[in-house]
Each structure stands twice: as structure tokens, then as C-alpha cells.
Write a structure and sequence with these properties.
heterodimer; A: mainly alpha; MetI-like fold; 0% strand; B: mainly alpha; 14 helices; 77% helix
């Protein structure tokens, strides 16, 4: 068995390096003092972060991303939670089919969704508008919310709600006071995922945005196709930090959820 | 007959949004394949007859077919260690895989580009070790595309495989050994078949994801590795040719759908959702 264990260890190390090395290098380079992407950097400085937060193209795009992220993540969470509740607890003919359809934006390749929205938006004047971007991003986030919330609803005991109804609570109150508190970790977790998803989304944004309304991922993309400069590694590190924070928050929520079930 | 449950209506807003902002537009795009610039099958004829299109479709399938086994082979030992190592090691490994999984694909593709550039870390290491005389061209070619795809897709196989492996009762392997199977035979005849649901799920997910990739081939690949999604974008942005774009989309969706069907038949999508 010994040679197999050694082989396994070697392959695991290769994968670990492959997965993490790029991220480590990006973060290190973002603190570089050199005007090009050299690793290891000749010295350290904060100048690229200074550059990032003082260049209007970057600050505007960060603002646009937040303006898209907040409504899109909120809409997706509310609509997705409502739909999951109806599909899991209600008796809807064809519930499985509807559920499968709600998962489609996750399965259909991004380029197809992007081209389709761009085509339809042309007639509606929605290209290059915040509204157009928010609608597109909401659709892309829906599957994640529906998957997370409906699986949380399935493990909750539906009888708790029935008890509330029997004791005279109207349906809305039963949901608000009994069900929602129980599935809240899942709802918050899907809100977080939706936020990170819209912040990172590139392909739909690439088609639907314009030079004036340009989210940060598109701004990064247009810089990447030109010459790389370390400002990109600064914004990439900011994205990475955001993802890390959301991941940690999500893990904390999951830990809370499983201890409650146990 | 019971009256319609009042909760039923809660599904409507999401379904409406999906219909108006997703199903409708995608349907419209696919319909272009048959109606643009005039009704007929001329777009599919063009896909079939012009080598440019056929080559991109073939390229895309070939790239997915090469990426998938590499990702599966690398994911296997990691999932194995995750499933059968100590609890402490498991937590670390899961975290290690989750961190890149949650990081933006664009950021990871860019990070991979930095590592692979002419004076990047990989070339510096190779030069320092004396393995090469000149920096290797690692970017904007098939190798760069491959490196990026593997980096991004590893978690898609590691997690389903891990969940299959974690459910394998260690008693099976002991039973096989007691009945006289040597470790390799026990692994091939007992262990490997039990990991099949995870292998199939991960493998097909990787294949499907690679088929639709745009960011990674555009950023890390070269002109000779052009994939379907890039072609769709070109057709619309550069030529306004919605007919070919629609036809290419239909091909891409058909292959994706067929593979998902295969997954549904062999493993069952319910199983995957667990």
C-alpha cells in the first residue's frame, strides 16, 4: 500500500499548488512596487490600491457593480425563496418540471443567455442600462437560491407549520414566525452566494453593459485584453477577499444549521 | 377536489421572470437559427459545409474530451484523501478546495495567466532548475487553456467524488481482503465501481462546463483554440449574424442536453442534488 499512499500524497500536493498558487501570486503582486507583473516583486507598496481607488474608471465601475448587486441579489433571494416555499410545501401540478426550469439558467451556457438577452434588450432599449443588468443578474442568481432554500425546506418538519395553523395562525403568520426563522440560515446563505455571483458575473454584463454603465468585471476584462498592469491584481485581490469573507460567513451559517438539526 | 392552495401563487413571480427574461429570449435566439436572414435551414447547411464552423465545434468537443479525464484523474486522490483521511485533514482539504471554488472565474483565469506568462513563476522555476534553456511559451496556446480549465474545474469533480467515497462502507474492502482479493483487485473490483456515481457526475459536469467556456479560452488560449462560445460572440458582435449564432447555440445546447440526459439515465439527477 505504501507506494500508493506516496503517489496519492504527491498528486494531492500538485492539486493544492495548482489551486492555490495563482491566488497567492495575485495577492502578493498586488502589493508590488514594480510597474509590471513581476514575481517575486522587487519591493512592496500600496500604490496599486491607491491607483485603483483614485482612478474614476475603476471607482465608477465598483459603484455600478454594487448598484447591480444589491437589487439583483435581493430580488433573486425573495423570488427564489417564495418559489421554493410554494414548490416544496404547496401542491402544484408539475412542481418538478417548474423546479427543473428554474435551474436552467445554471445549465445553459452563459454565452447563450448573454446573446439572447442582448438580442431581446435591443428592441426594449435595455442595453446599457442598470435595469437591464439587474434583470439579467437576477435570473442568473435564481437557481442558486431555489436549490439552497428548497433543500433547507425539505429537511424542515412541515408539521411545525401545520401546528401553527391548527392553533389559529393565518398562513402568512405561520410562514413568518415558524418557517422563515427555521430556514433563515439557508436564505441568508443564498443571498450571500447571489451577491458574490452578480459581483463576479462577466458574460451577460459584457453584452448588456455600455461604456457608461460598466460593472467591475467588464472593466477588468477590457484591461486584461490590453496590457496587464498591477492595478488589475489589486482589484482581483479585492474580489478574492470578498469571496473569502462570503465563504467564511457561509461556512459559519452551515455550521449553525447542522448543529440545529443535530 | 381541494381548493387551490393559497401558497401556490408564490411561485408565480419567479416563473414570470424566468419566462420573460430567460426562456423567451433563449427561445428567440434559437429560433433565429431557422429564420435569419430568411426562413429555412441554410444556417445549419452553412455549419455543416464551411470548415470554419465545423472546426470550432470539433475543437470544443476535443478540448472538453481532453480536459475531462485530466481533471478526473487529479481529483480522484484528493477526494480519496478527503473521504478517508483524518477529520482534521478533511476540514483543511475541503477549505482548500472551497476557496478557489468561490473565487471569481475571471480572477482565477487572470491569476493563471500571471503564473504562465513568459517571465512568470513557472518559467522562472523551470529556468532555475535548469530544465529548460529558454522560457517556454505557456500562454495563449493549448497548454494555457488546459491549465486554466483544470484549475477552474477540479472542485466540480472533487466534491461529487468525495460524497460517493464518504458513503462507502470500509467493511466492503475488508470483506474483499478476507475473501482473498489483493489490494489492487479489491480496489478495482469493489471500490472503483462504488465511486461510479461521483465519477459520472463530476466527469459530465466538467465536460458540459468546458463546452460552454468563454473566459478561459479567450484569456488563456490562442486563436487556434477558438471555442463555440467565442464563435457565437464573434458572429453577433462582429458580423451581426444572428442566424449562425442561433444555430451554434442550438448545437451547444443539444450536446449539453444530451449529456445531462445521459447523467439522468445513469445516475439520476435527484441523486446529484443530494
Amino acid at each position: 500500500m505504501r507506494p500508493w499512499r506516496i503517489l496519492r500524497a504527491i498528486l494531492c500536493w500538485i492539486v493544492a499548488v495548482w489551486l492555490l498558487a495563482p491566488l497567492v501570486v495575485v495577492v502578493v503582486i498586488s502589493f508590488s512596487s514594480a510597474p509590471f507583473l513581476q514575481f517575486p516583486p522587487p519591493g512592496f507598496s500600496m500604490r496599486w490600491y491607491g491607483q485603483l481607488f483614485s482612478t474614476p474608471a475603476w471607482t465608477n465601475s465598483l459603484l455600478v457593480s454594487v448598484e447591480i448587486m444589491i437589487p439583483a441579489a435581493a430580488f433573486a433571494t425573495v423570488l427564489g425563496t417564495a418559489a421554493s416555499y410554494a414548490l416544496v410545501r404547496g401542491r402544484i401540478p408539475g412542481a418538478n418540471l417548474i423546479m427543473a426550469c428554474l435551474m436552467l439558467p445554471l445549465i445553459v451556457p452563459g454565452m447563450i443567455t448573454a446573446a439572447a438577452l442582448f438580442g431581446i434588450y435591443r428592441g426594449l432599449g435595455l442595453n446599457g442600462t442598470l435595469t437591464g443588468l439587474i434583470i439579467g443578474h437576477t435570473v442568473l442568481c435564481l437557481p442558486y437560491v431555489v436549490a439552497t432554500v428548497s433543500s433547507a425546506l425539505r429537511v424542515q418538519d412541515a408539521r411545525l407549520e401545520q401546528v401553527a395553523s391548527t392553533l389559529g395562525a393565518p398562513p402568512w403568520a405561520a410562514f413568518w414566525h415558524v418557517t422563515l426563522p427555521l430556514i433563515l440560515p439557508a436564505v441568508v446563505s443564498s443571498l450571500l452566494v447571489a451577491m458574490i455571483l452578480t459581483f463576479d458575473e462577466l458574460i451577460v454584463s459584457l453584452f448588456v453593459s455600455s461604456a457608461r454603465v460598466r460593472p467591475v468585471a467588464v472593466q477588468m476584462w477590457s484591461n486584461l485584453l490590453g496590457d496587464f498592469d498591477p492595478t488589475i491584481s489589486a482589484i482581483a485581490s479585492v474580489c478574492f477577499l470578498l469571496a473569502l469573507l462570503v465563504l467564511l460567513a457561509d461556512l459559519a451559517l452551515r455550521a449553525g444549521r447542522s448543529s440545529r438539526i443535530a | 377536489m381541494k381548493a387551490v392552495d393559497s401558497r401556490t401563487w408564490l411561485v408565480l413571480p419567479a416563473v414570470l421572470l424566468l419566462a420573460v427574461a430567460f426562456l423567451g429570449p433563449v427561445g428567440w435566439l434559437l429560433a433565429r437559427a431557422f429564420t435569419f436572414p430568411e426562413p429555412g435551414l441554410q444556417n445549419f447547411a452553412a455549419l455543416w459545409e464551411r470548415p470554419v464552423y465545423l472546426k470550432v465545434v470539433g475543437n470544443t468537443l476535443l478540448i472538453s474530451a481532453i480536459v475531462t479525464p485530466i481533471v478526473v484523474l487529479l481529483a480522484f486522490p484528493v477526494a480519496h484523501l478527503m473521504a478517508h483521511g483524518s477529520a482534521r485533514l478533511r476540514r483543511w482539504l475541503i477549505f482548500l478546495v472551497l476557496v478557489p471554488f468561490w473565487t471569481s472565474l475571471l480572477v482565477r483565469a487572470f491569476a493563471t495567466a500571471i503564473l504562465l506568462q513568459r517571465h512568470g513563476l513557472v518559467n522562472s522555476l523551470l529556468l532555475a532548475l535548469g530544465l529548460v534553456e529558454e522560457p517556454l511559451p505557456l500562454l495563449y496556446n493549448f497548454g494555457g487553456l488546459l491549465a486554466g480549465c483544470v484549475q477552474v474545474l477540479l472542485p466540480f469533480v472533487i466534491f461529487p467524488l468525495y460524497s460517493s467515497m464518504a458513503r462507502i462502507d470500509p467493511a466492503y474492502m475488508k470483506a474483499a481482503a478476507t475473501l482473498g482479493a489483493n489490494p489492487v483487485r479489491a480496489f478495482v473490483r469493489v471500490y472503483l465501481p462504488l465511486t461510479l456515481p461521483g465519477l459520472m457526475t463530476g466527469g459530465i459536469l466538467v465536460f458540459i462546463s468546458t463546452l460552454g467556456y468563454y473566459i478561459i479560452p479567450a484569456l488563456l488560449g490562442g486563436p487556434r483554440q477558438q471555442m463555440i462560445s467565442q464563435m457565437i460572440q464573434d458572429q453577433i458582435a462582429a458580423f451581426g449574424n444572428w442566424g449562425i449564432a442561433g444555430a451554434l447555440s442550438l448545437v451547444l445546447l443539444a450536446v449539453t442536453g444530451a449529456l445531462l440526459l445521459l447523467l439522468q439515465v445513469t445516475v439520476g439527477l435527484k441523486e446529484i442534488a443530494r
